Amino acid sequence: MRVAVIGAGVIGLSTAKCIYEQYHLTQGNLTIEVYADRFTPLTTSDGAAGFWQPYLYDNGRTEETKWNKETFDYLLSVLSSPESVKMGIFLQSGYNLCSDYAPEPSFKDIVLGFRHLTKRELEMFPGYNHGWFNTALMIEGKTYLPWLMDWLQSRGVMFYQKKIESFKELADAGVDIIINCSGVRSGDLQPDPQLTPGRGQIIKVDAPWLKHWILTHNKRSSTYNSPYIIPGSRLVTVGGVFQVGNWSEANNSIDHKKIWEEACHLEPSLKHARIVEDWAGLRPVRTTVRLQREKISCGQNDIEGEGLHSVLPSSRSSHTFLEFSSVLGARAGAGDPCWALGPAHHLLTPLPLAGLLEAPAGGLYGQRAGGHGGQQAAAAVHGEEAGEDQKRDGGESQQPAPAQGGHH
Amino acid sequence: MKRVKVVVVGAGVIGFSTAVCIAESLPLCAVTLVADRFSPDTTSDGAAGIMIVSKYPDIDLERQKRWFKDSFDHLLAIAQSDQAPEAGVMLSSGCEIFRTVPAETVPFWADVVHGFRFLTESELKRFPEHCFGQAFTTIKCECSAYLPWLEKRFRRAGGKVQQSHVNHLQELAGTYDLIVNCSGLGAWSLVGDQQVHPVRGQVLKVQAPWIKHFIGDADGLTYFYPGVHCLTVGGTRQEGDRRLEADPAESEDILRRCCLLEPSLAKGKVLGEWVGLRPGRRNPRVEREVLGTQGSARRVHVVHNYGHGGRGVTLAWGTALDALGLVKQIINETGPPEARL
């Protein structure tokens, strides 16, 4: 069974890990190949600060909050393992600052030690009169991705630096399952008008006296267009901007000036800190997470696909592959099916896959149960709103513009 | 009008804090700081410098609270300014954990630190041998940076610095109008204070930049405090022990105890060890005295500010302000220098 993953950011590598963990014992001759034109440290995930925090509100999508919790709890359990430092995972506390009163965030019961900021704490941040303090998790891409690659390589996963131009290319090469985790440039593989970049720019600063993250939320500016300061294990990530539709990966001096001035205003101790580098990345923004099964004609074979999202190996993503296995089993008798998977758009969300599959479950799996042995009817399962469940990093979070509502 | 000549003895955090207070507040004073040892060779230099305090038995509680609050407010303002990195001052969050529930679950300084709360049951699960904990945000002040920063401030306020060893305070009576004694452990010989005794502390400096929170066992023996560049990991509390060399067996034990609290600490890189002798005393001595000088009718006014044990950094500014108050008192009472007793 040849599985090809397109994309070597945190989504692609985590997905490969999940597949291996779930199937390497049960699937005979399982091989996993990862194709990407960019590998760590050049992926979007690498530039990110690596801060876990969803958007403030799930707006009633309590399932997302539940999935986030499972992911957070899973990461927390990894934290106490001897590998945690090598994985780039650690705890850090900090401040969510609001310019006006805001209801408590949906993640308040997930993070550790959530509480409101006291009056004296708020005095440290003029212009902000409401907010919260809690302990959350950091997962640094520049450390986590190499760890994932080592983990995968030592288990026989092959890596190829190659830009895949089409699903057909892989299908023709004999791949059985394709998982598309190509992030913001998924449109190159399959046009997706809903996909757009949400450009972010960050400044990496040497300021090791800072031990707390600070995020600001302004009603006037959109999410991540107001300052944030996120210390990492070596450098501090300072942001932010969020520019929808801007494909430029070049650093912009006007953005730099805005980010720097606002950050120094928020945290005066930064004023004389040494700036190490600027970086710009493209958040893969989409109004919804896309999880879709498609039937694509590919010469003599019909290719069926299913999109899936995977970020960090969440406790629930393994469930997704159990679903896959029942499909695979059913198809085994039909020769060599090719599976082309729809794009995985949501970069760096802690959203477990199984939750997405369960949502409108009847459609996909009901049909499969009845339709084995012959052609599968294409069915679409659309996942939940992108963006609520963000792993916050150097701006690599989505902006689900219309549906966000609430505070943002 | 002739200026009042003040000498501050001691160049640790108490000495320099007091000297700065006096020099900045009292332009009529010409302040000289005299010490045999300066940063990085003072006791203050190796201290973690975390603002945490326990109650002294014999000092009025309101006064202790004022010491802590004044120090906290002073350092917080620095932490919030562009001076923070140069001064080595930073905010620090973490927890204190207890093996038995303390008599006082909410200490007198709880409303001075930020966000004081108890640890939840689930948070305590991490520490199977501890049953109670307090979480808060406080301030850390690293004297290897803070002392040079204070010295700059002192000189800018007109202060003079002199390196020399003082055997007895009376030696200074001829040159100065007022002596401020911030000699720490040195007070034992300098003024014959038998109450002052060393409390040896050994610590490790460990590089583990992924650790962002402090954890301190309330017994004061096991703790780690993340600093600007490294963690201060400790420790020991050995009364009367004057050994200045680090003991490798103690280092091993310190690491073992701290790794129980934070396993990832084992992945840190040990940069070195350090030993300091805390100037232990039942209570800090912040009071004025008149010293007779041998073979002369002349007496000299002294303000004592020493004996802070392991709480020097924590109480430096607050006690310095107290000492400043005593200096002002003396100046007001004694009038111009010519009229001194």
Oligomer: heterodimer
- What percent strand of chain A? 15-25%
- In total, the number of strands of chain A is 18
Main interface by residue count: A-B, 35 and 33 residues
Protein described:
The complex is a heterodimer of chains A (408) and B (341). Helices cover 27% and strands 25% of the residues of chain A. By secondary structure, chain A is of the alpha/beta class. In chain A, strands 4, 5, 6, 9, 10, 11, 12, 13 and 14 form a nine-stranded mixed beta sheet that branches. A four-stranded parallel beta sheet of chain A has the order 7-2-1-8. The termini of chain A are far apart. Chain B has 341 residues and is an alpha/beta fold. Helix content of chain B is 29%, strand content 29%. Chain B starts with a strand and ends in a 7-residue tail after the last helix. In chain B, a hairpin with a 5-residue loop joins strand 9 (213-217) and strand 10. Chain B has helices spanning 13-25, 43-46, 61-79, 84-87, 121-124, 143-156, 187-190, 248-261, 312-334, and strands at 4-9, 29-35, 89-98, 114-118, 132-141, 160-163, 178-181, 197-207, 213-217, 223-226, 231-234, 238-239, 269-280, 285-292, 299-306. Chain B is globular and about 65 Å long.
SSE blueprint and pairings:
The complex is a heterodimer of chains A (408) and B (341).
Chain A: E1 2-6, H1 10-23, E2 31-36, H2 44-47, E3 51-52, H3 62-79, H4 84-87, E4 89-98, E5 112-116, H5 119-122, E6 130-139, H6 141-153, E7 158-161, H7 167-172, E8 177-180, E9 196-206, E10 212-217, E11 228-231, E12 236-239, E13 243-244, H8 253-266, E14 274-285, E15 293-298, E16 301-306, H9 317-331, E17 338-339, H10 353-358, H11 361-370, E18 391-392, H12 401-404
Parallel strand pairs in A: 1-2, 1-8, 2-7, 4-10, 16-17
Antiparallel strand pairs in A: 3-18, 4-6, 5-6, 9-12, 9-13, 9-14, 10-11, 11-12, 15-16
Chain B: E1 4-9, H1 13-25, E2 29-35, H2 43-46, H3 61-79, H4 84-87, E3 89-98, E4 114-118, H5 121-124, E5 132-141, H6 143-156, E6 160-163, E7 178-181, H7 187-190, E8 197-207, E9 213-217, E10 223-226, E11 231-234, E12 238-239, H8 248-261, E13 269-280, E14 285-292, E15 299-306, H9 312-334
Parallel strand pairs in B: 1-2, 1-7, 2-6, 3-9, 7-15
Antiparallel strand pairs in B: 3-5, 4-5, 8-11, 8-12, 8-13, 9-10, 10-11, 14-15
Helix pairs in contact in B: 1-6, 1-9, 3-9
